[in-house]
Amino acid sequence: MAKFLSVVLATTSLLFRLHVLEVALSQNAVETSALTHTSIVLPSSSAVVSAVLSATSTNTPLTSIEPSSTLSLTSTITAAPPLTTTTSFNPSSGPFPPVGSFPRDYSPAGLAKLWDVVGPVEVPPITTTVIPQTPIVLPSPPPALYPSFFAVAPEDILPDLKFPEGFFFGVASAAYQVEGAVKDEGKGPSLWDWANRQPGVVVDNTTADVVDLHYYLYKEDVARIAALGVNSHSFSISWGRILPFGAADSPVNQEGIDHYADVIATHLQFNVTPVVTLFHWDPPLALSAYYGGFASPNIVDDYIHYAKTVFTAYNGSVHTWYTFNEPQVFCSELAGFPFNLTLPNGVNSSTAQFQCSYYLLKAHAGAVKAFREMRITGEIAFKSADYVGMPWRANNTEDALAVERHAAFGLGIFADPVYTTGDWPQILKDTLPPDYLPRFTEEESKEILGTADFFAIDAYRTYWNAAPPEGIDACVKDFSNPAWPACNLEVMFDLNGWASGPASDPLSPWLQATPQFLRTSFKEYHRRWPTSKIIFSEFGFTQPFEGTRTPAELFQITEDTERTNYYMTYLGELLLSIHEDGIPVEGAFAWAIMDNAEWNSGLSARFGIQYVNYSSPTLERTYKRSAFALSEFFRQHLQN
Ligand code: NOJ
Fold first, then answer.
1. How far is CA 575 from CA 167, 273, 454, 517, 587, in A?
2. Half-sphere exposure of 3 (CA within 13 A, CB side)
3. Ligand 1 atom closest to Cα of 325?
4. Is 31 in the pocket of ligand 1 (CB under 6 A)?
5. Does the beta carbon of 598 lie inside 6 Å of ligand 1?
6. First-to-last CA distance in the chain?
7. Of 530, 515, 591, 603, nearest to 171 (Cα)?
8. % helix / strand / coil in the chain, to the nearest 5?
9. Distances in whole angstroms, Cα of residue 171 to Cα of each of 221, 570, 630
10. How do 464-466 and 534-539 pair as beta strands?
11. Mind listing the pLDDT tens digit for each residue in 330-369?
12. Distance CA 282, CA 303 (A)
């Protein structure tokens, strides 16, 4: 889990002001949580340690009142479902069974036992696939932001620069975060179905049991993005829907196979290219119960089997595949509560992240090998995350080293083995003993190197890096240092205390808008991990405090100016990156298609370009300004 450090920095004598500022410990800069806070002194000469930030919860109950004036903006659903019980549902589940003790019983009774580990699940208000009224007619767009010297209209941003032919203008989602219907049609529980019920894990105590109910509303969701001109959707398949027990020797769930076949067919019908991720952080709970999931070598064959099953089922209708979403974030998550309760014997919170990284890379490589041997048509990679930063203090050798450490522990840990060396970054090997970070044999290195056809990067932001106050060497030698093993700090403000960019919602403290660094970042990605094609696989922003607003404030929710500016400035810089810097970017995917379950921040941190009314049984979607801005931007900048 992310450890965010609150620092009161009494800056040098040049600046006699106190700033309350946040520094995220970079080796754990997990994008989804701000639950743990510690304090540090930085820099040691002049800083004063301050109070600790408290986690911000926006657990505001939503009302069911909707202003009638908003109706024309919202989606239409033809089925009339019964009223939801959302407000009275009380999520809770017991402790995780001792790892290895759970019997492998692949019968319906065995599945029920797995669900017992999760506890009661909320029944969705809709239980069949909804056929939407199509075509979707877009409501009238918002008026231009005023004046134009405050915000340039999307079509007037670098109007002569175009995206390359065939460019993916996409939105993104992930199964756990949007589907809901978690127990329907034979699905087995995922680890997050259990984790979100553990005390303190999700700030607003919400589950993803229902969330957007994309599982039944996907036809409308696809039609709605197609209406914007979106030409691709990056979504994930839930392993537990395909193989409820996860394991290679366990039965396939035909309903799951059929479901995604129709999801994919629907995309094709609307001319929206499906881009499919096999694993977006939702492992089958069974595999953790049987052997400890991704902290065990057993995961490798089970994952490869799952991948082959999916390739076989959808070969020909999906062209672009990802094996894993942001593996660095997923594996660091395993070290923290409650996932640390699911580790097998011999793996602990300190070693879990690196054991997981090792097995996950082997699983990735094995799946790509199968993909190639099976002659699946198309291309495959994994989605990287994080950034290559800049030294906080220019010309400071320690901070320059901190940048390298950040790049190695964040991106390099997966990108170096796959794209350039077949091995871990040297910095990792110099820091982590083999019982933490297993070393690759020569054969494993050969199997891993070259197992991606392109480079995909979720590039939400770029910051500075600094050495820890006690120095990098001292940190590297000290296992108990909170910055160990990455031993660098992520700094979101400059030397004078000014932020690198506008803040997003307090529930995503890791995120500030930093378009000014986008071109440098993409140059670095391309220089360090060269490929002939890059996909900007996710970017997005939480409009500050949006999650605290009620449906009655819909007209304020849809006016998401900061998110809109984030997208417009990033896309403008992306065009420059392509045209001025020659970076071969061939797609950009806005996170997210709609509001969704943002992991530890639940339903309160909202990333959607569409609002979802969670207090309504029909879960209406409403386009926000950002959706129109993206649509306009692409209309102007896609080749005809
Ligand atoms: C990247 C992750 O892939 C996604 O699941 C998450 O919701 C977004 N970042 C925003 O935090």
1. 12, 22, 19, 14, 11
2. 19
3. 3
4. yes
5. yes
6. 45
7. 591
8. 35, 15, 50
9. 11, 15, 10
10. unpaired
11. 999 999 999 999 999 999 999 999 999 999 999 999 999 9
12. 12
Decide if 536 contacts 459 (C-beta within 8 A): yes
Catalytic residue (one of 326, 524, 546, 573) = 326
Taking the centre of ligand 1 as the mean of its atom positions, its distance from the CA of residue 31, in whole angstroms, is 7
Amino acid at 425: P
Which runs of E-coded beta strand occur in 413-511?
A: 455-458, 464-466, 489-491
Phi, psi angles (nearest 5°) of residue 200: 80, 0
Q: d(Cα 465, Cα 478) in Å, to the nearest integer?
A: 20
Look up residue 533 and give its DSSP letter. Answer: -
* Residue 347: how many other CB atoms lie within 10 Å: 22
Q: What is the CA radius of gyration of the chain?
A: 23
Pocket flag, ligand 1, residue 607 (CB < 6 Å): yes
Closest CA to 187 of 209, 218, 169, 164: 209
Ligand 1 atom index nearest CA of 540: 10
From the candidates 179, 447, 538, 598, which is the catalytic residue?
Answer: 538
| 538 in catalytic set | yes
Cα(333)–Cα(137) distance, rounded to whole angstroms? Answer: 41
Q: pLDDT below 70 — which residues of the chain?
A: 1-90
| H/E segment holding residue 10 | strand 3-10
Q: Which secondary structure element, helix H or strand E, spans residue 524, and what is its range?
A: helix 518-528
Instruction: Let me know if 326 is a catalytic residue.
Output: yes
Which of these, 612, 626, 625, 627, lies nearest to 66 by C-alpha position? 612
Task: Look at residue 77 in the predicted model and tell me its pLDDT.
Answer: 30
Closest CA to 637 of 77, 18, 104, 159: 159
Q: What is the pLDDT of residue 90?
A: 67
Nearest Cα residue to 382 out of 272, 281, 252, 263: 281
Alpha-carbon distance values, 292 to 1, 283, 344 (Å)? 18, 11, 5
Q: Which long-range contacts (CB under 8 A, 24 or more apart) does 12-20 make?
A: 12/45, 12/46, 13/46, 14/496, 15/496, 15/497, 17/497, 18/48, 19/493, 19/497, 20/50
Which tens digit of pLDDT belongs to each residue from 42-68? 332 222 222 222 222 222 222 222 222
pTM: 0.89
Relative to the CA of 174, which ligand 1 atom is closest? 5
Q: Is 386 in the pocket of ligand 1 (CB under 6 A)?
A: no
Question: How many C-beta atoms surround the C-beta of residue 104 within 10 A?
Answer: 12
Other CB atoms within a 10 A radius of the CB of residue 435 amount to 11
Angle between helices 299-314 and 352-373 (to 10 degrees): 40
Spatial distance between the Cα atoms of 447 and 94, rounded to a whole number of angstroms: 40
Q: What is the pLDDT of residue 92?
A: 74
Between CA 402 and CA 414, with CA 408 as vertex, the angle to 5 degrees is 160
Per-residue pLDDT at 59: 26
What is the model's pLDDT at position 479? 95
Q: What are the backbone angles phi and psi of residue 605, rounded to the nearest 5°?
A: -95, 115
pLDDT of residue 372: 98
| pLDDT for the residue numbered 19 | 26
Q: Please state the φ and ψ torsions of residue 383, each to the nearest 5 degrees.
A: -95, 115
Beta-carbon contacts of residue 446 (< 8 Å; ≥ 6 apart): 422
**Integer angstrom CA distances of residue 482 from 5, 25, 468:** 10, 8, 10
Q: Which two tokens stand for residue 186?
A: 């034979």
The one-character DSSP state at 408 is: I
Does residue 487 contact residue 470 with C-beta atoms inside 8 Å? no
